[in-house]
Structure formats: C-alpha cells, structure tokens
Hints:
Layout: H1 2-17, E1 28-32, E2 38-39, E3 44-49, E4 59-66, E5 76-77, E6 81-85, E7 91-96, E8 103-112, E9 118-127
Parallel strand pairs: 2-9
Antiparallel strand pairs: 1-3, 3-7, 4-5, 4-8, 6-7, 8-9
The structure holds copper (II) ion.
Amino acid sequence: MRFKITAAIIALLGVTLTPTVALAHPKVVSAKPAPNAKAARTKVVTLTFSERLTPKMSAATLVMTGMPGMANHAPMKMAGVTSKVAANGKSLVLTSAKPLATGTYRVDWAVVGADAHRVTGTHSFSIT
Ligand SMILES: [Cu+2]
C-alpha cells in the first residue's frame, strides 16, 4: 500500500515537473508497469500519451539496465520486443516474445503527435 502511494506520488511529480516545451507535444499520462514500479513478470509494457500518435513515426525500444547479482550491467537492448500504437491511437504498446526476466528496464520512446514534432523520453520500471 505504502509503495503504491509512493509510486503514485512519484508518477504525479514526474508529470507535473516535466518541463513543457510546447503545449501540443504528446506526453506520457499513464504507464503499465507504472513509473519505477516493481512489477510482476509480464510480456507487455504500455505507455499512454496525452494525444493521438502518428503510428508510422512512433516507436519504442526496451533496454535491460540491471540484473540481480550482476554489478555494472551494461544497458542491453532486448531482442524480440516489438512496439505498436494501439487502436485507441494514444497508447504505445511494447510486446516481448518472452516474459521479461527479473531485473530493471528502461523504455526509450520516440513519438510524433499532432504538431509533427518528434518527442522522446524514457520510462523505467523493474520486474521482480
Ligand atoms: Cu512540437
């Protein structure tokens, strides 16, 4: 419970404190797993943005940034992960062929919204 509240506050701060470059740029409004969450094993990561995305110009990659018992884990791009804009037009869905192993991960995303500018960002979480 305490963790969920902390995660919610962190998520809220992240949204509030993100500098606004221009009002029209897409930004992440929700994510599953949530930002910095310790999530159960999954094959799917979903980032939902504040506006509709241009599917052809919007994609993400998944990078493993840490593994239990392995110090100085170099960021490793995960093979077998695809990304796609969902039917709602606002969610970018990453799907892994295999359930993600225990460790820490970072999504590197790049999307294009209504104003045609490319916007990039990252989203971090861990799998327990
Ligand atoms: Cu723009």
